[in-house]
Request: fold
Amino acid sequence: MKLLFERSRAGRGLSVLPPLDVPECPIEPSLRRRSALDLPEISEVDLSRHYSALEDRAYGVNDGFYPLGSCTMKYNPKINEKVAGLPGFLRLHPMAAPEDQQGAMEVYYRAGKCLEAITGMDRVTFQPAAGAHGELLGMLLIKAYHRDRDDAARRKMLVPDSAHGTNPASAAMAGFEVVSIPSTQDGRVDLEKLKEAVGPDTAGLMLTNPNTLGIFDENILEITRIVHEAGGLNYYDGANLNAVMGVARPGDMGFDVVHLNLHKTFSTPHGGGGPGSGAVGVKAILQDFLPLRQVEKAEEGFRFVDPPKSVGAVKSFYGNFTVVVKALAYMLALGPEGVREAAEGAVLNANYLMRALEPGYTPAVSGPCMHEFVLTLEQLKRETGVSALDVAKGMIDRGMHPPTMYFPLIVHEALMLEPTETESRETLDQAAKAMLEILDQAHKDPEALKQAPITAPVRRLDEVKAARTPILKYTRE
Ligand SMILES: *Cc1c(COP(=O)(O)O)cnc(C)c1O
Reply:
């Protein structure tokens, strides 16, 4: 597909600026450009077709089933976009005086109260821009807490081997030494190994529950108790709160700090790198260390407050505001019952799809799952040579987005599916049927599957080359 610059023809295109009807205000010559701005010149119809063609090549939740595990690619009600686009929210300047942005401050305040109720935490901040950013803030809070108690010898952060890759990365970025805790055969934290690992150098534990295998660790109270008794704090990676919101609260499971991905669970579409929000909730013991510019209720209206021992700001201004507007609109529309129903629907749909696939596919761990599940295609690979990658590519030709592949790392030939609560039973049936057909094809005609996808705009890409030597800049001839 040609780029706009390649389609540009000198003199083409149109100028729609109206004639000047105000006094001209010339720009000082030293500040003027010396050559014309190099912009593509193209007619409106060609421009319009260009963007339609781009849209045709993209695949999103509006196009079909998108079971990308660990990402919660669910349908987000369009009304929430409308609410976030209201001029009063959209045109607000971040440097407006507090008395001129009371409405926006109320959004932060009320969204915070909702998430405090959902997570069982005492205070929420919306400053971090994404999940991993929230993790980093959480690590800085834990560090500040230990320092404040003259306990800076606590340098080790415990992270189970099933963790999302961002967890060890965030802990390392905050200056902690990462200690990996092995999982048991059935995907839970190995309690004995955890007991051996904790000590006076333990700063804390980072845990996802349900974990990346889609399993809820029933030993959670025991796990958080072991860490607390050793003097550490517990961090909950709540990027995917979809399975537990309205049902179980990290605050009740013994966690001291949690981050949520509003762009997964709370109605902001993602996948194209758009704005996110990694809201962070803390128990009262960490409240004094929160970032600057917390919104609090005042005698009258709302005010900004800098916590006394703040770790500082982690982002300019107050976070990605419109994402918070969408989250609040979503939570208010659903109400406490609706939030719980969404979580129950997510878990039901995942279990339904897992069972529907069981005639041919093997879950990595047995028993019911939470909002997502992991399949292992190790046996299929041994018998037919067809890999998890081949099956994923085959799904593209059957009109679906592929699941997450080769993650978590502790499962071989892994496919991780998260159907989400917004899919209908018919869609799940259709997906299961298509995936079982792929399995059939793997046995009858494995070579054909190795050619997939044949219907997509591009065939198989050289993923290693794309990762090692990416071309990120367009060079003009
Ligand atoms: C998505 C995800 C993250 C990272 O969130 P980003 O917004 O992409 O930084 C962290 N942990 C888990 C479990 C996730 O699924």
Summary: Residues 397 and 455 are 6 Å apart (CA to CA). The chain has 16 helices and 13 strands. The two ends are 17 Å apart (CA to CA). The pocket of pyridoxal-5'-phosphate is lined by residues 70, 130-132, 164, 166, 208, 237, 239-240, 261, 276, 278 (CB under 6 Å).
